[in-house]
Design a protein that fits this description.
Length: 70
């Protein structure tokens, strides 16, 4: 696929390399400006399967008892 893109670009090697860099920059900007925010709105970031504070509350007594044993 990259070879086909390289052959489709006009001009000498230096111009082709510059065009590839510009095209890559455009793709990155488009992804960060429109694609990633759109996909982030569909991601379930607020839905966690871990409790809020139950894990640390259950772990703290064990940690203190281990420290006393030392």
């Amino acid at each position: 696929m990259y070879a086909a893109l390289w052959r489709a670009l006009p001009g000498p090697v230096a111009l082709k390399a510059l065009l590839v860099v510009v095209l890559l920059a455009v793709v990155i900007v488009v992804c960060f400006q429109w694609v990633f925010p759109l996909v982030a709105s569909w991601m379930p970031y607020g839905e966690t399967t871990v409790g809020t504070d139950a894990g640390t509350a259950a772990l703290l007594p064990q940690l203190f008892s281990l420290r006393e044993d030392l």
